[in-house]
Design brief:
This protein is mainly α. The protein folds into two domains: about 5-70, no CATH class; about 75-125, no CATH class. The chain has six helices and two strands. The chain is elongated. The model has no long low-confidence stretch (mean pLDDT about 90).
């Protein structure tokens, strides 16, 4: 029996899968589920649930990571200018550490009203 592709699983799970889910499923077909998961910063289990239309978490956040990591979505970071959305989200997760002036500037910008911030109290935070 021929294994079912991840693109087929996305179609089964979503009906008409959004473009970003199709992109993620295509990557999973090419690089395997583990490779796709690593590329977007999620576990293989979560990645599989997203592709299959069964993920109950924050789909908007997964979409942003996929669009940044795989589809070239850029945001205008107040510190560095153009930054991929997935890297923007990575910076927001980092704890404060005075290891470099750049890291301190990024930490503060993510928490000082940056329009792209999902940190509680900033920008498009949920």
């Amino acid at each position: 029996m021929t294994p079912v592709s991840m693109v087929d699983k996305a179609t089964t799970g979503w009906g008409e899968a959004p473009d970003w889910v199709r992109e993620l499923a295509g990557l999973a077909d090419r690089d395997g589920l583990n490779g796709a998961a690593a590329r977007i910063g999620y576990s293989p289990a979560t990645t599989s649930q997203v592709i299959n239309g069964k993920y109950l978490g924050d789909l908007a956040k997964v979409e942003e990571r996929v669009r940044g990591a795989l589809m070239g979505l850029l945001v205008d970071c107040p510190v560095v200018g153009d930054l991929s959305r997935d890297q923007c989200l990575d910076w927001q997760k980092k704890p404060y550490a005075p290891t470099s002036a750049h890291r301190v500037r990024m930490f503060r910008a993510c928490r000082a009203g940056c329009p792209h911030s999902r940190v509680k109290g900033g920008g498009d935070a949920v």
